[in-house]
Amino acid sequence: MKKVLRFLGVLVLMAVFTMSIFATGEAEGGEEPIKFGGVWPLGDITGDQGSKAAQIAIDEINAAGGLLGRPVELIVIDSELSPEKGAAAIERLATIEDVDFFVGGMSSGVHLGQIPTLKKYRKITMWTGAASHTVEEAMGPNQEWYFHLHPWDYNQGASYVEGWDAIAERYPEIKTDRWFLAYEEGPFGTASFAATKALFADREIYGEPFQSAAAGGGDYTAVLERAKELEPDVFIWAAWEADALPLMEQSKAIDFNPPLYVGAPPGWPADFGESPLAENVTLYGMWAPSLNNVIDNSKQFYDNYVTTYNEEPATYFAPLGYSAIYVIAEAVERAGTLDQEALIAELKKSKYQSPMGEIITFSPSNIISNQGIRKQKILQWQNGMQEVIWPFEYSTAEPVYPFKPWKER
Q: Most buried in the list 100, 163, 239, 331, measured by CB within 10 Å?
């Protein structure tokens, strides 16, 4: 009987020991995982797919043996597009989860709320969103631990000027002299309007704000009627995924047919291209599945995502999230350590060939030390696909012009 009890006692001790290993996240050999803490708006397509793509990178790294002989782990918290919840997520990841790095992000407004907490902990941060220059001002100079992948609004604006000028030169029938910008009334929209006026100073620029459907609005009639009255060459709206289809429906209802109809949300509804309302809508972005035809590692990323989740990545925040993990991982491998000073030095040397086509490097922008991508692409919905029309080296289709009138659809 004593032998049986002694045997059972050994089994209990082994079970407790095994459970403690899983509870602490220790891997075989006693190594704890290297932790990435991600904050995304999971209810928005940008956060949903950005976080899923980041997890693919984590899985690929673990399949290849991890980093520094240790497994890697991604812990994701939903910001719910709330500055307060976004800040609380950073606090939890820094303290309770004790992560090594921060990744993720989309909204400028949320990120403004997170910056004080990020500065409190000063962990290496690879941010995929927040385009407003007000975020850069809030972050301030000399924050060497902070790396920003997404172009700032003024970077984007400069690339739009370059792109539209190049398109107008190649296609003289396309006119871009008179603009109207309908924008959501938050930091993203107001910054977009300010940047547009500054960068397209040689053009006529008009604009009006509206309350986004994401913030409880959704009636765009007044701003669309005003735009129709002014007869712009280019009509642009800058808001969120939730505004995309309602804006198109209300434009059709009042028979608003600008020659160029441009949408500029961070992400589009996954099924937007399936709607006949989408045809010939022009957009800005850093990636689209059509790039699989011209960029090899875009196709590899796309195929891995579809295989893993049985859905198509529909927003450039997916390859951005994937790239954020790999940029850090490659720097860790080069540094051979998690020492922050050594890692920052290696991150500054980054030359990561991204699925978006760009080689990601870092250099100073107007204020921060480590800015990554600086350009967007100009695309157009054609037959349900986002086709790249500029830069021409990535072009997958010719632009369709003018926007087809609703009565002819």
A: 239
